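Box 3.1 A note on notation
Throughout this textbook, protein chains are presented in two layers. The first layer is the amino acid sequence; the second is a token string describing backbone geometry. Keep the layers aligned when reading.
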Amino acid sequence: MKITAIETQVCHARMRNWIFVKVITDQPGLYGWGEATLEWHTRSVVGAIEDISQLLIGEDPRRIEYLWQMMYRQHFWHGNGIVRGTAISGIDLALWDILGKIHNVPCHELWGGRVRDYIRLYCHLGGGKMEDFYETRADDASRFGELAQAAVEDGFTAFKSMAVPETMPLEGMRPIRYAEACVKAMRDAVGEDIDIMVDCHARPSPLMGMQFAKALEPYGLYFFEEPCWPEAMDDIAAIQRAVKTPIASGERLVGIAAFKDMLEKRAVSVLQPDITHCGGLSEARRIAALAEAYRVALAPHNPQGPVSTAASIELGFATPSYAICESVHSDVPWRQEVVSEGFVVEKKGRIVKPNTRPGLGIEINEAVVKKHPFRQEVLQRSFYADGAVGDW
């Protein structure tokens, strides 16, 4: 059995281009689907996949770890940069999809079987539309309460918001009070039984991140995400020690070594590897095992396309430390036309029942993908009041 081709298919989905990866074998009808979506770097990732694929053509797709090592190590520049890490991830997901199809079982059965009966989903405020998710940064506090209520009415028992505004490295109390007002509006709207997450998008400085974390601690957040740059792991660790709120980070990290550093510093209570960036399911499983050793929860970053979601769910059913799955359920109205999924989502509580199909349990409709060809994403720009460049 040999790999004969590795294709990329780009599908423009409003805020991002989904990059689907199709690994084709010499066995009739046997192929696998992966995803390597990386916003604003579509052409770079597609090119990286084309480069790396030269290592895999003619190889046995069942030798997943062997092929992963080839992709990571055999071009001198190790695959720990975001573009190469994303390219490796997309191919790796497709290889696991193939292996599940060969053995006629879902991927989670390859990894020891189910450890849970269902997985809970959480959404972004704005109904899952990522533009709305980010636009809520500028809305008044009451808007957050309205969006929170709508998410609960849609069946979710947990949601994420961007209640922390863009903030200069040093500011007074105005942004702190604004964030408090937004979170209070959400808590008042949905009560104590709904889990609220706040994502800082790593925009604050460590100093401001600490102030936001302390100010929002009384509201019982499920987790407080990326209070400052992930490069400042010591500062993230200091924030975690200062508050009871679980701190979450990891979406921008690639490779197990970076996650090892984060865990050794006791920087977070929730680890957020992105399966489409960190090194695929192969590396995500190693990261999950490391998280288990530290008794840290896993909640993968997953705002991408449908293959990423299917892979995250498969990982969750076989991973004890997995806590909750990020869900973007209505980013484009035709999302369900692109994909056929093997898992079932129950609206009440927004829980996922296990996939029963082989591999990742998904099939991509290539005809629909072709209706939405590549379009250059709008590059996001953010500036402080004085004109200095900020973090988006």
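The chain has two domains: 3-106, 110-358. The two ends are 46 Å apart (CA to CA).
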